[in-house]
Amino acid sequence: MNIYFFKLASLFYLLGTLFYSVYILFLKDALSKLAAVIVTIGFASHTLAFLTRYVEAGYPPVTNLHESLSFFAWMIVGVLLAANLKYKIKVLGAFLTSIALILMLFAFALPKEIVPLAPVLKSFWHPFHVAFAFLGNAIFTLAFCCGVMYLIQEHQLKSKKLGALARRLPSLKVLDDLNYQALTLGFPLLTLGIITGSVWAEYAWGRYWGWDPKETWSLITWFLYAAMLHQRLTVGWRGRKAAIMAIVGFFSVLFTFLGVNLLLPGLHAYSNW
Q: Can you give 11-78 as a three-state secondary structure string?
């Protein structure tokens, strides 16, 4: 049953991405509203997929790569819906929903069978570690999209050839402010994810930190975002530098999440498939 809801959510995300893309082309408010409704239905279907899988498995379904990709996509769409409520940036949906759709497609291609839970994952701290880490990553995805849009909009303005795209993107100030707010929200969540992960590691392996590749790259990512926040608060980094660093930070997040698991052997290898 959970796969049915998963497929349904993927379909709605695809339709939402298409309608957001058409909105960018024609700037019809009705299209963005329709896209938002479709993505909201997709999010509800996705939530049902998690709930039914939880009931079927008997444990939080974030234990392999299929489940992790799906959970990451769910978090990203949740962040999009929350951002839409507060900021009303319609074009943001085209970026975030596209990323969520890509994650869902990758998840769809992976084995979906429910298997017995590995002993190392039977921990009180595991769900908290996963929730903090993925929510932080989803918010950093928002910062990444703002960074990409900032560079596009800045290029448009500097070229003095304002095309249709310039009218579809928010102002540089709005994008920079949202990037900063995403950083201030995502960094504490990343920190909590690392702390709860360390407590879980002590429970599972008898030590809080062991320089496993996943732990090492999580720390590298943490230092990247800590440096960004420090530069924002003390040096006043804004604009182009902040946008570029948001993009660099997101690629570090992706490598920590996927690259380490797939390319580097370590204690987290159980979550590959």
A: HHHHHHHHHHHHHHHHCCHHHHHHHHHHHHHHHHHHHHHHHHHHHHHCCCCCCCHHHHHHHHHHHHHH
Q: How far is CA 107 from the centre of its chain?
A: 14
| Domain, as residue range, for 272 | 135-273
pLDDT (tens digit per residue) in 1-16: 889 899 999 999 999 9
What is d(CA 63, CA 131) in angstroms, rounded to the nearest whole number? 12
Chain centroid offset of residue 125 CA: 21
The two tokens of residue 38 are 């479709």
Choose the final residue of a domain: 63, 84, 117: 117
Q: Does 230 fall in a domain?
A: yes
Residue 163 lies inside a defined structural domain of this protein: yes
What digits encode the pLDDT tens for the residues 99-115? 999 999 999 999 888 88
With both helix axes pointing from N to C terminus, report the angle between 172-205 and 213-230 in degrees, rounded to the nearest 10.
150
Angle at 170 between CA 167 and CA 176, to 5 degrees: 145
Residues 154, 267 contacting (CB under 8 angstroms): no
DSSP labels, 181-210: HHHHHHHHHHHHHHHHHHHHHHHHHS-S--
pTM: 0.91
Residue 24: half-sphere exposure toward Cβ, Cα within 13 Å: 17
What string of DSSP letters covers 122-171? --TTHHHHHHHHHHHHHHHHHHHHHHHHHHHHHHHHHHT---HHHHHSPP
| Helix H or strand E segment including 104 | helix 92-108
Phi, psi of 92 (to 5 degrees): -60, -30
Q: Which amino acid makes up residue 49?
A: A
